[in-house]
Amino acid sequence: MTPILQSAPPYDVTALRPLPGIAPLDMADWLLVDEAFAPQMAERARLLAERRDDVLAVTEGAGPAMDELLQFVLDWLAEYGTGYQISAREVRRPDGVIVPIDRADPLLSLGHLVQEDLCIMEKRGEEHVLSAAVLCFPASWRLAEKIGRPLLAIHVPVPDYPQIAPRVQRFFDGVQPGRPLWRFNAHGYGDPALFHPMRENVDEAARARLPYLRSERQCVLRLPGTRACVFSIHTYVMAR
């Protein structure tokens, strides 16, 4: 399969901030359309058709947040979405593809609308739990292993995460509607595949020599109605 690559993300990948590396984001800049929009969306469609159970998951009780997120994205696209045409029953994407709006399957509709993967985090007990997600482009993790789990359990393989976990939980608790936040990461990969659930068996020093750089632009916002947090991921893969 021909790699789906971008030339560069709209930020300096060398300017990594200390974890969790969070900064404010203008609401108008939440979702992006880049040079790889058409091929990435085609790959999303293939994965949703052929591997739905691997890339879309929902827990009991997540329905209201999913419904709100679908309408929130539609409203955002109508106001800010470059190249989108929105009607009551369908959306015409920037690449010309028509996406029917299926209110009975909101995450499937969302998976066909935007480049970003969308994860819903809801406060259940003392922690935010991954209650639903459409995650077509996982970077070395499996949705089936993380769905329904709290933040700390989701980030078990991440070095130093236990030390910053309280700060991350406070961050999710403090996100306010209309005031999204963002961060990014960057890691070397040997394989440019966007659907990349398996971890590569290389150390961090070796990653600097791998032929591809993968960077995720991660944004967090709060839905005003259900108060669920949305964690969106825009994936960039570049040849070094």
Q: Per the principal axes of the C-alpha atoms, what is the gross shape?
A: globular
Beta-strand residue percentage:
15-25%
The number of strands is 11
* Main pleated-sheet profile: 8 strands, antiparallel
Separation of the first and last Cα atoms: 19 Å
Walk me through this protein's architecture.
The chain is an alpha+beta fold. Strands 1, 2, 6, 7, 8, 9, 10 and 11 form an eight-stranded antiparallel β-sheet that branches. The protein has a three-stranded antiparallel β-sheet with strand order 3-4-5, with helices on one face. The longest helix is centred in the N-terminal third of the chain and has 18 residues. The model has no long low-confidence stretch (mean pLDDT 90).
Topology:
Layout: E1 23-24, H1 37-50, H2 52-55, E2 56-58, H3 63-80, E3 85-86, E4 90-92, E5 98-100, H4 106-113, E6 117-124, E7 127-134, H5 143-146, H6 151-154, H7 161-174, E8 181-184, E9 187-189, H8 204-207, E10 212-222, E11 229-239
Antiparallel strand pairs: 1-8, 2-7, 3-4, 4-5, 6-7, 6-11, 8-10, 9-10, 10-11
Helix pairs in contact: 1-4, 3-4
List keywords for this structure.
eight-stranded antiparallel beta sheet; 29% helix; 11 strands; alpha+beta; globular; three-stranded antiparallel beta sheet; 240 residues
Task: Report a brief summary of the structure.
This protein has 240 residues and is α+β, with helices and mostly antiparallel strands. The protein is built from eight helices and eleven strands.
